[in-house]
């Protein structure tokens, strides 16, 4: 135990392992856990030195110097050795099982273990432009098309009935007529000489169960999730093959094709095109949700990573709010214009395709191809960093990134981890549950059901069609407001605190909704419908403060770089599969449990909250390497690595 404590102190102080201690180090920290996270040697060249060495006399690379040329200080090695010695002298030895509880004051805000705390940075115009561009055609478009059919759902269902009726009766087997009642927002059809087999398609709706119609609508609603599942397994290959920006381009083309097919459904009278179109949009969502999240996490400074990590979800909420606003009956949410509502989702995708070429690549992604393309990629990475930060003073941050690449090159492998590799490696598998449980809580919290069926839920508690549309619009406004509030709190309170706060409010909201639902049903209390609406608002406000966004960027913080793509892909797979199960099972569970259905979601949230409070470490203000040391120490203690 003493040896373990000494190793912990040496690692925290930024010391490298001596050759005499290699055997003991291998026993305490196997290569599977420490191969990527070793601090760089004091003799390793800095980013400036590598760039200077690669410059040619005829076309050298001009690097602005912040130090005197007579005695230039290395960016990551010599200048911090004194600080490391001081930390080591004043740091008492601790047992290995106490490592994960240390304050880590020497590394809470550092890059590599032997570097000084990075300068706190503010958002720049170019950084905001890049984040906005990367999320507009991806997360905004995703939020838009996910709820575009929510408000005009009744019109779409009536149109599907009309299509089926025309297919069976328009060929001379019956006389088909149609009338439209604008005030009730219902299409009625009258058919003569029909049989009982066609009554459910062509007669005026009577509330008689229509299994085929329900199945068609369930398939349309869940097809986007199926598309995400199909794309998940190819995401790592596509991102490796085309890069982050190239993957966004590829998904944009797929999304545009799906949008065109969805918008043409009324012209060709085929709801099958709507199914195929939403499947293609889901495939595009599966790729963009991974690529955009990784891109944002890699271009954002450490002190802004939490705030910008909420941006994708905020853009998704704005997209949902936009779709609900445009889907009101007086705009595009009517029988004649709902296909136009679907066509409008192509606009943000086109804007992203136009603006993305003006955004720089991720410096970390550029440096991944350095060994294959030469040191010129280091120059390119520095130019990208200068573009994002709007200053030439980026050498500290660049050297932090270079040290991560050097640590990977010095380790056993710099190869990207596969999807199965996440599960095979004990250390990565331990982190897998830290990311998977919050995603489970996110999708089984009841949010997916509210997202797809909010208008129907509000109608079910006693609100009219128009008031239900307004209530849905107000719900997304609440979501947006609290998402913006959480954007400023996540880097102050921390990820773990935001999740636990979110879970507490969600449990309260769902529990109150169940109570008001019971009161409004058997007891027929008139005001209970407003209590139900207020409870849904409380739930959405709480959901937006943490559970909506934190699970998406947890894998980008907890996993090392070579495993991030696979980790985010797994979380995307979890999100799609859990969401599809929740959306498909909800109508059947309602029949069985009725007013008590939402208690299932309360149980799922409470179970996840206990796990997060017990296991999830705080990552606020820590760089990737400091987080890796915390996780390595914690899982060494519990025997998971």
TrEMBL record:
PANTHER family: FACILITATED GLUCOSE TRANSPORTER PROTEIN 1 (PTHR23503:SF8), SOLUTE CARRIER FAMILY 2 (PTHR23503). InterPro entries: GLUT, MFS_dom, MFS_sugar_transport-like, MFS_trans_sf, Sugar/inositol_transpt, Sugar_transporter_CS. The lineage of its organism: Eukaryota, Metazoa, Ecdysozoa, Tardigrada, Eutardigrada. It is found in: Membrane. This is Solute carrier family 2, facilitated glucose transporter member 1. Residues 182-620 form the Major facilitator superfamily (MFS) profile domain. It is a multi-pass membrane protein. It comes from Hypsibius exemplaris. PROSITE patterns: MFS, SUGAR_TRANSPORT_1, SUGAR_TRANSPORT_2. Residues 1-45 are annotated as: Disordered. GO terms for molecular function: hexose transmembrane transporter activity. Belongs to the major facilitator superfamily. Sugar transporter (TC 2.A.1.1) family. One of its GO terms (cellular component) is membrane. Keywords: Membrane, Sugar transport, Transmembrane, Transmembrane helix, Transport. The chain crosses the membrane at residues 125-145, 216-239, 248-269, 275-296, 308-332, 338-360, 431-453, 473-490, 497-519, 525-546, 567-590, 596-614. Pfam families: Sugar_tr (PF00083).
């Amino acid at each position: 135990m003493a040896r373990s404590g000494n190793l912990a102190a040496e690692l925290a102080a930024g010391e490298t392992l001596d050759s005499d201690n290699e055997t003991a180090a291998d026993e305490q920290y196997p290569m599977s856990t420490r191969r990527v996270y070793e601090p760089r040697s004091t003799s390793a060249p800095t980013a400036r030195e590598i760039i200077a060495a690669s410059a040619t006399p005829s076309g050298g690379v001009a690097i602005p110097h912040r130090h005197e040329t007579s005695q230039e200080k290395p960016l990551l090695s010599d200048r911090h050795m004194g600080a490391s010695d001081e930390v080591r002298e004043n740091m008492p030895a601790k047992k290995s099982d106490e490592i994960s509880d240390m304050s880590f004051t020497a590394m809470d805000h550092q890059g590599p273990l032997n570097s000084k705390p990075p300068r706190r940075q503010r958002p720049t115009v170019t950084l905001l432009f890049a984040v906005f561009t990367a999320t507009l055609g991806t997360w905004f478009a995703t939020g838009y098309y996910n709820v575009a059919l929510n408000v005009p759902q009744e019109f779409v269902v009536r149109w599907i009935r009309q299509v089926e009726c025309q297919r069976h009766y328009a060929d001379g087997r019956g006389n088909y007529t149609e009338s439209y009642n604008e005030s009730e927002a219902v299409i009625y059809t009258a058919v003569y000489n029909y049989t009982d087999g066609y009554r459910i398609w062509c007669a005026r709706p009577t509330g008689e169960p229509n299994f085929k119609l329900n199945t068609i609508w369930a398939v349309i609603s869940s097809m986007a999730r199926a598309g995400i599942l199909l794309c998940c397994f190819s995401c790592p290959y596509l991102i490796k093959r085309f890069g982050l920006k190239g993957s966004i381009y590829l998904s944009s083309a797929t999304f545009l094709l799906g949008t065109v097919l969805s918008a043409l459904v009324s012209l060709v009278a085929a709801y099958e095109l709507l199914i195929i179109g939403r499947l293609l949009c889901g495939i595009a969502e599966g790729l963009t949700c991974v690529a955009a999240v990784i891109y944002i996490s890699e271009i954002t400074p450490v002190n802004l990573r939490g705030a910008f990590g909420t941006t994708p979800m905020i853009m998704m909420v704005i997209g949902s709010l936009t779709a609900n606003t445009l889907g009101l009956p007086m705009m595009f949410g009517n029988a004649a214009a709902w296909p136009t509502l679907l066509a409008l989702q192509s606009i943000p995708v086109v804007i992203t395709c136009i603006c993305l070429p003006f955004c720089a690549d991720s410096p970390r992604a550029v440096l991944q191809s350095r060994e294959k393309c030469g040191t010129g990629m280091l120059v390119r990475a520095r130019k990208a960093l200068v573009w994002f930060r709007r200053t030439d003073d980026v050498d500290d941050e660049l050297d932090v990134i270079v040290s991560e690449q050097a640590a990977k090159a010095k380790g056993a492998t710099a190869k990207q981890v596969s999807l199965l590799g996440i599960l095979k490696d004990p250390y990565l598998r331990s982190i897998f549950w830290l990311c998977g449980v919050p995603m489970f809580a996110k999708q089984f919290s009841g949010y997916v059901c509210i997202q797809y069926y909010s208008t129907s839920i509000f109608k079910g508690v006693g609100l009219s069609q128009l008031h239900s549309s307004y209530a849905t619009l107000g719900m997304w406004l609440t979501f947006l407001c609290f998402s913006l509030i959480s954007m400023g709190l996540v880097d102050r309170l921390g990820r773990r605190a935001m999740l636990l706060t979110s879970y507490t409010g969600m449990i309260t909201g769902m529990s109150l909704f169940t109570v008001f639902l019971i009161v409004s049903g058997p007891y027929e209390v008139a005001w209970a419908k407003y209590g139900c609406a207020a409870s849904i608002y409380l739930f959405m406000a709480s959901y937006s403060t943490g559970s909506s966004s934190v699970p998406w960027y947890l894998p980008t913080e907890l996993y090392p770089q070579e495993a991030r793509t696979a980790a985010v892909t797994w979380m995307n797979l979890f999100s799609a599969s859990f969401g599809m199960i929740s959306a498909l099972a909800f109508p059947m569970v309602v029949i069985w449990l009725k007013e008590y259905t939402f208690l299932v979601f309360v149980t799922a949230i409470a179970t996840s909250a206990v796990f997060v409070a017990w296991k999830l470490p705080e990552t606020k203000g820590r760089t990737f390497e400091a987080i890796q040391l915390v996780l390595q120490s914690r899982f060494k203690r519990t025997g998971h690595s």
